[in-house]
């Protein structure tokens, strides 16, 4: 098994905004359920302890995955975890949903 990438990468909100419409990147949101239902990046998947197993089983490990949290801190641990589960292109969204909502309020789903 060749895995020459042992860590996740960082993505800025403008970088995600550029690729969002292409549907090439999977956005996973690890915030709590209330925050997620109150507002999330369009098409984001809510990733919780309960849904994690299903996600790992069903997701394409070679598709780019962007992990979103509140401010871009907890997402780094989650991104590193996905790398350890053999996902090859994992990004932590710098600034998190807070930054996204500030810059792209039109790309928030409720």
The helix tally amounts to 5
Strand content: 15-25%
How far apart are the first and last residues' alpha carbons, in Å? 40 Å
Mean residue pLDDT: 94
Give helix and strand order, one letter per element, not per position.
EHEHEEHEHEHE
Q: How do the strands line up in the largest sheet?
A: 1-6-5-2-4
The best one-word shape is globular
Note the main sheet.
5 strands, parallel
Radius of gyration: 13 Å
Low-confidence runs (pLDDT<50, min 5 residues)? none
Structural class: alpha/beta
Assign a percent range to the helix content.
Answer: 25-40%
Query: Quick one: how many beta strands?
Result: 7
Please describe what this structure looks like.
With 110 residues, the chain is α/β, with parallel strands linked by helices. 36% of the residues lie in helices and 19% in strands. It is built from five helices and seven strands; from the N terminus they run E-H-E-H-E-E-H-E-H-E-H-E. The strands form two sheets. The chain has a five-stranded parallel β-sheet with strand order 1-6-5-2-4. The radius of gyration is 13 Å and the shape is globular. The termini are far apart. The model has no long low-confidence stretch (mean pLDDT 94).
For the structure shown, list the relevant keywords.
110 residues; alpha/beta; five-stranded parallel β-sheet; 7 strands; 5 helices; two-stranded antiparallel sheet; 36% helix
């Amino acid at each position: 098994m060749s895995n020459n990438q042992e860590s996740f990468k960082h993505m800025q909100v403008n970088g995600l905004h550029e690729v969002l419409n292409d549907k090439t990147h999977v956005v996973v949101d690890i915030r709590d359920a209330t925050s997620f239902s109150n507002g999330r990046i369009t098409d984001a998947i809510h990733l919780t302890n309960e849904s994690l197993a299903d996600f790992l089983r069903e997701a394409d490990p070679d598709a780019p995955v962007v992990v979103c949290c509140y401010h871009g801190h907890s997402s780094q641990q989650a991104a590193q975890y996905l790398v350890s589960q053999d996902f090859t292109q994992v990004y932590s969204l710098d600034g998190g949903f807070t930054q996204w909502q500030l810059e792209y309020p039109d790309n928030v789903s409720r």
